[in-house]
Amino acid sequence: MSDSQNCYLLDTSVILDDPINILRISENHENCVAITDIVLAELNNKKDDMRSDAGFRAREFFRLSDNDMGSTISFEELPDCLKHCLKTEMCKDDLFYSLVLQFETYLIGNHDFEN
Questions:
Q1: Closest C-alpha to 30, from 7, 61, 64
Q2: Is the model's pTM score more than 0.85?
């Protein structure tokens, strides 16, 4: 990631609108996308709803993010754009989870289907 990357904090509604939004916003890992534990809890509560689109999209989010590419990191290991948004005194002892989502470009509309 570059020094000039943008940092985005996603709300539950952005993910429930379309889980692929995470991939679009990240712009092929050029931007930092952050999701709070509150959003994860809200998505977790929605995923058991088998009758709604929100339940389906919550399950899609967890399928997209369920891989072995993640790890727990400390405050010091966060991207600079995210560290600048957080209060160091309040977050320095917290643990964060970094996940690199692997995806095919056709998922975000950059694929040329005519070839």
A1: 7
A2: no
What sign for the dihedral angle of Cα 33, 35, 36, 37?
negative
Two structure tokens written together for 44: 């977790």
pLDDT in tens, 96-108: 888 877 666 555 5
Domain boundaries, the chain: 7-102
Q: At what angle do helices 37-46 and 53-65 cross, to 10 degrees?
A: 130
Q: Where are the beta strands (DSSP E) in 21-66?
A: 32-35
Cite the beta strand spans of the chain per DSSP E: 7-10, 32-35, 71-73, 96-98
